[in-house]
């Protein structure tokens, strides 16, 4: 059984309304929860910010704040950009369950086994339902190739999930883990090492 996690990068609508066209230099804040060593930071966010600066001739600079350096918790990122505290965020819609319920469909198991098809489908959904994101400007949306389970004990059969405590990123993943007989424990990605080292969870 395979499921995926949906991610998206959002900008505040005010970013596109409040920037003066004749400004000599524009500095924008990009906040996310991943550590600097994560591929999502060094292979995606940072190169994108560099390209924006390059393509604007150095006029637009994006300062990236990884690891929630500007404060708050992962579920609050969506409100930080909506309220204009920051200009961009990268987050999971599943961190705020119920706010974007239709996008959670893309996290369900057995929906599709091809991540390319899933990414095209989720992009098509965003394009066809802009009213669902009226308070935001969606810069990017994607699902990854699939979730894997990393545990301190081998799991070879469905029965071996029973009694385990597994960290989950979203409520959809929690429903699935619970159906297997394990206990889902929700926590942001940056807390995983601490929870594993302290034995709070058996895997993720």
From TrEMBL:
GO terms under biological process: transmembrane transport
Keyword DNA-binding: no
Keywords, in A-Z order: Signal
Keyword Signal: yes
InterPro entries in the record: DctP_fam (IPR018389), TRAP_DctP_sf (IPR038404)
Cited Gene3D superfamilies: Bacterial extracellular solute-binding protein, family 7
Protein name from the UniProt record: C4-dicarboxylate ABC transporter substrate-binding protein
């Amino acid at each position: 059984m395979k499921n995926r996690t949906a991610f998206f990068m959002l900008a505040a609508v005010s970013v596109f309304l409040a920037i003066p066209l004749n400004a000599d230099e524009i500095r924008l804040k990009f906040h996310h929860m991943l550590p600097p060593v994560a591929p999502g930071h060094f292979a995606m966010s940072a190169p994108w910010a560099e390209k924006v600066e390059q393509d604007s001739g150095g006029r637009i600079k994006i300062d990236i704040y990884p690891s929630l350096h500007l404060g708050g918790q992962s579920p609050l990122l969506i409100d930080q950009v909506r309220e204009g505290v920051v200009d961009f965020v990268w987050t999971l819609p599943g961190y705020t369950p119920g706010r974007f319920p239709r996008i959670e469909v893309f996290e369900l198991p057995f929906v599709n086994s091809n991540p390319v098809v899933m990414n095209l489908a989720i992009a098509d959904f965003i394009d066809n339902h802009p009213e669902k994101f009226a308070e935001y400007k969606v810069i990017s949306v994607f699902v990854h190739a699939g979730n894997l389970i990393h545990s301190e004990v081998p799991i070879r059969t469905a029965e071996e999930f029973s009694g385990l405590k597994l960290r989950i990123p979203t409520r959809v993943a929690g429903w699935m883990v619970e159906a297997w007989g394990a206990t889902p424990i929700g926590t942001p990605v940056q807390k995983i090492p601490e929870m594993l080292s302290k034995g709070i969870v058996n895997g993720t």
